[in-house]
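Class, study these two lines:
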Amino acid sequence: MAFRLQFMPQAVGVLSACQPAVRERVLHELGAIFSGPLLGTQGQTAGAEHSGACLLPSGFHVHYAVDWKHGLLHLLELKSPDDELSAPLS
């Protein structure tokens, strides 16, 4: 099953702020991950939704949700490695 990727505004903003080479790498990594292990259809029920988070090889953190019924992959949040470094320590 092919999925349509839908970016939430926050994720679009993060990608827009990246240099073109970084943006291309992140999009390639997203494609590689979401076409394989995270979207394996084994054990999925039609209409079920799945959400989670993953770390891309480039260091970007991704929060996503899969809508199996409508064939949508929602990219909910994207955090760059720089965001993690600039976050205040608790």
